[in-house]
């Protein structure tokens, strides 16, 4: 961790873009080799093989890149599942997951560039990130192995990375303006300290999570003898403490990126760091809907799924949500608990869309006090539902997930399904109510 932070600060002294490309690629490979040994070669093999595939200009290169990169990852995920069926280990598969995102995004960007050259109409975002040519091998490897985020992400677009490499200095920016003024920028060291202090707050909680609330206790008969509300609170503690480990890793990745000067974006008239932050903790913990919760967690992956899976499904559009969650589950691996988690999220997302369409308009027409109560209920229901689904992610095996969920009587899933059915009944009855009203008026 300290090595990556020190190297991130050091790279700010490199002024030439070529030097930044080379240092980014070399340092990224060094960190992976230092962390995972020979296992890091899988990352190099995937990156080089996909570059050859993209350089070949074969038809349907984006689809082929998807098939090869996801197939490569799934094979290694399957080997991991077979070798450690009842457990999880931090290894080179984590960086590979981020590599697959970057490679498939780049493949689509190149494909979008060719489509633009043919005069095809694209979405505005697709046009802004489209590439007219494949980057040089040094630029490509620097993008894939960008060392501040090589371990834990986040992923980002190639054009955003290329702009960072060619970023002008403060002096150059002032020279481009007539009055010599530029938008104020957050102090880099202050940003790193802010992220580091936030991460430090989670260290004791992360350590406590291993022993304070063991997930395995939910499988014991003693747990079932507890009152239901205590079981629910224990399950919430297990899920919440499980997230802490990810909070720490992603916040430290934000610190590394800020140390390297990467991730500036405008907020309220000031350039601040954190553009590619993988998590919005407060938005996640106090989400009023499943959608808000999922978009606040692992945000880099959510952007990838939204813009490169969901929006690009041209057939079976009614199944886009299901297909997107399926790709996400495959990307995560083959532990059955992952699929239970994503099935639960899929049910919750569909139920949320239905209630937003049917119930929310009614509530918005009511007094403000009712809306406040509605939002509070939304926070409680959403966090309870997410915590319940996340237990599947923690337990991993199907038998354990079933045992843990059954101690809570599958209540959140049943409630979400019941909410969706209720909303569908309201939707069906509404035309009849309007027809009856018109008939009475006549």
Give a brief rundown of this model.
The chain has 442 residues and is an all-alpha fold. The chain has helices at residues 2-11, 17-36, 41-55, 61-83, 93-117, 124-129, 137-144, 158-165, 170-176, 188-211, 221-224, 228-259, 281-285, 290-296, 299-308, 320-332, 336-358, 360-364, 368-395, 398-407, 411-441, and strands spanning 265-267, 270-272.
Q: How would the blueprint of this fold be written?
A:
Layout: H1 2-11, H2 17-36, H3 41-55, H4 61-83, H5 93-117, H6 124-129, H7 137-144, H8 158-165, H9 170-176, H10 188-211, H11 221-224, H12 228-259, E1 265-267, E2 270-272, H13 281-285, H14 290-296, H15 299-308, H16 320-332, H17 336-358, H18 360-364, H19 368-395, H20 398-407, H21 411-441
Antiparallel strand pairs: 1-2
Helix pairs in contact: 1-12, 2-7, 3-4, 3-5, 4-5, 10-12, 12-19, 16-17, 17-19, 17-21, 19-20
Question: Care to describe what's here?
Answer:
With 442 residues, this protein is mostly helical. It has helices spanning 2-11, 17-36, 41-55, 61-83, 93-117, 124-129, 137-144, 158-165, 170-176, 188-211, 221-224, 228-259, 281-285, 290-296, 299-308, 320-332, 336-358, 360-364, 368-395, 398-407, 411-441; strands at residues 265-267, 270-272. The chain has one domain (2-430). It is built from 21 helices and 2 strands. Helix 1 runs parallel beside helix 12, helix 2 packs across helix 7 and helix 17 packs parallel to helix 21 (411-441). The chain is globular, with a radius of gyration of 24 Å.
């Amino acid at each position: 961790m300290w090595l990556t932070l020190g190297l991130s600060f050091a790279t700010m002294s490199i002024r030439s873009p070529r030097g930044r490309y080379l240092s980014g690629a070399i340092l990224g490979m060094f960190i992976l080799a230092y962390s995972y040994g020979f296992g890091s070669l899988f990352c190099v093999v995937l990156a080089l093989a996909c570059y050859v595939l993209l350089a070949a200009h074969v038809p349907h290169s984006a689809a082929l890149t998807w098939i090869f990169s996801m197939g490569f990852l799934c094979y290694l995920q399957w080997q991991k599942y077979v070798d450690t069926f009842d457990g999880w280990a931090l290894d080179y598969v984590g960086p590979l997951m981020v590599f697959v995102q970057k490679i498939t995004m780049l493949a689509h960007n190149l494909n979008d560039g060719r489509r633009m050259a043919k005069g095809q109409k694209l979405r505005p975002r697709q046009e802004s990130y489209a590439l007219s040519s494949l980057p040089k091998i040094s630029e490509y490897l620097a993008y894939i192995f960008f060392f501040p985020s090589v371990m834990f992400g986040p992923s980002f677009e190639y054009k955003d990375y290329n702009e960072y490499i060619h970023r002008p200095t403060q002096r150059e920016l002032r020279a481009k303006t007539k009055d010599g003024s530029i938008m104020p920028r957050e102090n880099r060291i202050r940003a790193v300290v802010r992220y580091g202090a936030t991460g430090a707050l989670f260290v004791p909680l992360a350590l406590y999570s291993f022993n304070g609330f063991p997930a395995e206790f939910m499988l014991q008969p003693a747990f079932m003898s507890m009152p239901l509300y205590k079981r629910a609170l224990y399950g919430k503690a297990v899920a919440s403490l499980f997230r802490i480990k990810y909070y720490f890793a992603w916040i430290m990745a934000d610190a590394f990126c800020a140390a390297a000067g990467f991730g500036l974006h405008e907020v309220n008239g000031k350039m601040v760091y954190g553009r590619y932050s993988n998590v919005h903790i407060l938005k996640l913990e106090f989400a009023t809907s499943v959608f808000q919760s999922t978009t606040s967690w692992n945000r880099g992956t959510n952007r990838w799924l939204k813009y490169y899976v969901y929006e690009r499904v041209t057939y079976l559009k009614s199944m886009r949500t299901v297909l997107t969650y399926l790709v996400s589950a495959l990307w995560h691996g083959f532990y059955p608990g992952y699929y239970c988690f994503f099935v639960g999220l899929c049910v919750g997302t569909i139920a949320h869309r239905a209630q937003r369409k049917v119930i929310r308009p009614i509530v918005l027409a009511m007094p403000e006090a009712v809306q406040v109560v509605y939002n509070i209920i939304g926070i409680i229901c959403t966090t309870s539902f997410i915590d319940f689904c996340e237990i599947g992610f923690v337990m991993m095996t199907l038998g354990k997930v079933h045992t843990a969920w059954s101690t809570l009587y599958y209540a959140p899933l049943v409630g979400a399904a019941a909410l969706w059915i209720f909303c569908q009944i309201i939707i069906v009855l509404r035309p009849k109510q309007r027809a009856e009203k018109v008939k009475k008026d006549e």
